[in-house]
Write a structure and sequence with these properties.
disordered C terminus, four-stranded mixed beta sheet, mainly beta, single chain
Length: 210
């Protein structure tokens, strides 16, 4: 089932007013011409898709009020329809930026604004390009980590080639069925969950323990 757009100019239900809603990723000034060329170069490894603009009909942003949920008092992303194994749900949108490799005397007074973001997703590790949805993004920014909610994730991030924008990107996909049968799809009303990865939690270990 391909995602459908709800039309330009509309906002998803429960969208926070302080966050800018995007229908396409925006570029940071840190992204130069060489970076843009790399992002506009297609590879056979990417999933080719035509991602529609605007709110996605396959998902809904839902406030969480369960005390046992790790994101209690915040929101999560839930399936608005039954999603089959392998379904591409929606693209992860945000500010595309280049992170600093190291700190130098010239950059110490200008800290990386994305360094501590909980919404920064890696797009190209070699070029240090990321997609940060901290201040601007789409529904994908509300996907929670599975830990403390379920035994395992039911979705994952996959690299895509967006035919509409002719650019690389990252998208949320339902886990494939696989030989183990772990990917059984996501039922309507079920929370969409991914694994943030060890790097995410490792970088925040000291914060969590405080």
């Amino acid at each position: 089932m391909p995602p459908k757009a709800s039309g330009p100019g509309k906002l998803p239900k429960n969208w926070p007013p302080e966050i800018r809603y995007l229908t396409a990723s925006m570029y940071s000034p840190t992204v130069d011409a060489g970076n843009k060329e790399a992002l506009r170069t297609q590879s056979k490894e990417f999933i080719v898709c035509d991602v529609p603009r605007g709110p996605c009909s396959l998902v809904k942003i839902t406030p969480i009020s369960s005390p046992s949920h790790p994101a209690n008092g915040q929101s999560g992303l839930f399936a608005a329809a039954d999603l089959k194994s392998g379904t591409l749900v929606l693209q992860y949108l945000g500010e595309i930026h280049v992170s600093r490799a190291t700190s130098t005397p010239d950059t110490l007074s200008e800290p990386d604004p994305h360094a501590d973001s909980n919404y920064d997703l890696s797009l190209d590790r070699e070029l240090r390009i990321g997609i940060d949805a901290n201040h601007a993004g789409n529904e994908a920014r509300f996907i929670n980590d599975y830990r403390g909610i379920a035994d395992r994730p039911n979705a994952e991030f996959k690299e895509i080639w967006n035919q509409r924008t002719k650019e690389r990107g990252m998208a949320v996909c339902v886990l494939p069925e696989g030989k183990s049968g772990k990917g059984k799809g996501i039922k309507k009303g079920q929370e969409i969950l991914i694994s943030y990865g060890r790097g995410f939690w490792g970088a925040r270990k000291d914060v969590v323990e405080e």
